[in-house]
Design brief:
This protein has 133 residues and is mainly alpha-helical. 59% of the residues lie in helices and 8% in strands. Strands 1-3-2 form a three-stranded antiparallel sheet. Helix 2 packs across helix 3.
Length: 133
């Protein structure tokens, strides 16, 4: 066991299942395991409650979640900040898939058939705001 603890929260990369739990906590705030479990089951195939419980306990040990044990029901909350985690994941994605080039990523997104006219207008407005700064 190390005597010095690094602040790795900003560099921590959650797994897909850990991200699923974090997404629920970011959206709904501090929650019980039962609540998170029920939300996960709404999103995908049946998840076993004990698996959700164990995952959240492991995430607490990793420093991703905090647990309030002051009442009968343990309430978990996300320690990791949504913006930092998503920014870190996006940066890694851009680095590995687009050689670190945001413009190559944007060109791939804009060339995608899924980009609607409404989304293109939002992007144009964002670009105008960036240009005016």
């Amino acid at each position: 066991m190390s005597l010095f603890k690094k602040d790795t929260n900003s560099e921590m990369v959650p797994t897909k299942t850990e991200m699923d739990v974090l997404q629920v906590l970011w959206q709904y705030g501090p929650s019980t395991v039962r609540f998170v479990h029920d939300k996960l089951n709404e999103q995908k195939e049946a998840v076993i409650y004990t698996s959700t419980l164990k995952l959240m306990q492991v995430m607490k040990e990793k420093g991703m979640l905090a647990r309030d044990e002051s009442s009968m029901k343990h309430v978990y909350s996300a320690i990791l900040q949504e913006e930092k985690v998503k920014g870190n994941l996006l940066g890694r994605f851009v680095d590995s898939m687009y050689n670190g080039s945001p413009s190559n990523l944007m060109m791939a997104l804009l060339g995608n058939d899924k980009t609607s006219a409404e989304e293109l207008e939002k992007i144009k407005e964002l670009l105008k705001q960036v240009d005016s700064k």
